[in-house]
Each structure stands twice: as structure tokens, then as C-alpha cells.
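Dear colleague,

Thank you for sharing your sequence with our group. We've completed the structure prediction you requested, and as agreed, I am returning the results in plain text so they can be pasted directly into your records. Please verify that the sequence below matches your submission; if there's any discrepancy, let me know and we will rerun it promptly.
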Amino acid sequence: MSDKMIHKAGFVSIIGNPNVGKSTLMNALVGENLSIITSKVQTTRHRILGIVNGDDFQIVYSDTPGIIRHPGYKLQEAMMSFVDSAIEDADIFLYVTTMDDTEIHPDILRKLVSSKVPILVILNKIDLSSQDLVSLKMATLQDDFPDATVVPVSALHKFNLEAVLNHVLSYLPDGEAFYPKDELTDKTMRFFISEIIREKILILYKKEIPYSVEVEVEEYKEDEERIDIMATIYVIRESQKGIILGKQGAAIKRVGTDARKDIEEFVGKHVYLNLYVKVKKDWREDENMLKKFGYSN
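Please find the predicted C-alpha cells below.
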């Protein structure tokens, strides 16, 4: 396949409330684990592109942060700016919801409907409910989105994803490829390594710790045999630094061990991972720090 053969291409923005499985859907559609998946809300902080190429098409999926009704600090405002940019760029919307997801942000609904862009409403996690209840929910969603197509799926079990792909292809506009055929995403290796480390923190720590943390890869040195990585974990309080480190460094050692295994699988090489913890008070409100961490369009 050459890029010149592609005659259909477009951006597909995946939008929805927290905890509806947007990242699971994104990863399943792309066939790679590009977005963090945990049970905690606000897992996705950035807009992450996943690129799928066919014989004559290119689909650029865009996973966005979960919708926050009332952003509490500048980090969350930046996250919502990613949602706004995804709405502006979209050729197709995938609005993801679940059986127990009852609130549709009125501003988001207005933007989606008024955009006149084709909408697929993805009713996810149907494996957790009965067929009768799923049918009732689909009817309700059709009332909310009268011009949309409602598609029931289980992203986790990869059920009915072919129907999603077929609908996307039917709406995909004519156009040339946006990215070379061998590109999978727009993000760098350093970005994915920092996300893998942050994922382990989301899994291993409770309460406010995961939401006070940012990870930056400071050094990335690669040779034929291994990759040496130094990363800094930023927290907002000294007490959080102690929790991240754990007694005699046991907690951060587990983070490093778990992250190193996933990074090695991701890069296909042996990895030496060195983690540090720094306190940066109120980094979530610091525009310079947010820009440094990539929270800008």
C-alpha cells in the first residue's frame, strides 16, 4: 500500500464521560495499547491519536480525556481543551456511554449535534447487562441523538467492533492520508514510557496520589542491547513523596519493576529504569510546568 492509493481518510474523535471505557475502545479499534486503562477516573489526560490503515483508507482515532463538568484547576482546564480541539477537528464522532452513564454534558451534546458531523453513539460494556435493558437504553440514546447511529459493543471482549469499523468507513470522507502508513500514533516513545510509569502509579497507589502525580522522562539512551531511562515522578507535597517512595524505597521499587517489564515489552529490548521523586507544589496550576508536560494544543 502506498499513501497515494488512499482515497478515504479522516479524524474520528472518541468522546464521553469518565469510566465509560473510551481507552479500552480506542486500544481495541487500533489493535495496540496506546491509552492507559484503569478503573480510576481521569486516567486519560492527553489527546492520543491511534492510526489505522487499510488498503484504501486511513482512520485517525483520537482518544480524549473524560468530560469534566467543572474543572478544578488548570490541568483539568487543559484536559478539557483537548476535548474541544477533538470536537473541532472531527470528521466523525464516537460518543461512548454505558448502561449506568446517565448524564450527557449539555454543552458537549450541543456541540456534537450542532456540528453536523456524523455521530456514532457507542453503548459500551453491554456484557454487564441484559438484552432487554440494552434495548431500552439504545432507545433512550436514540432520543438523545436522533440523527445518530447507536451501536452496542463490549470493547473489553471485542464484541461488535466490526460494526463500528463498518459504520466509520461508511462515513469516512474522501481525502489523502494524514500520516505515513507505518505510523501508529503521533506520540513519542518518551510519552508512552511516562504513561506506562504513570499507569503503575494509578494501579498501586490510592486516594489522591495518582491525581497529584506527573511523570517526565529526563533521559533516554539506546544502544543495540538495552535502553537506559531516567524518569522523574512529580508530586505536589512532601508527604506524597514519602508515600511514593515507601518504607526503605519498597514502593517505588515495585513501580519500577512493574513499569520496566511493560516498557521492555513495548520497546522489545532490555531496559534499565531509574526513577526519582521530586516535589513541585501546585504544578497542576503552573502554566509553565503544564506546557513542559505537554498540556497545550
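Summary note from our side: The chain has two domains: 3-171, 189-292.

Kind regards,
the structure core
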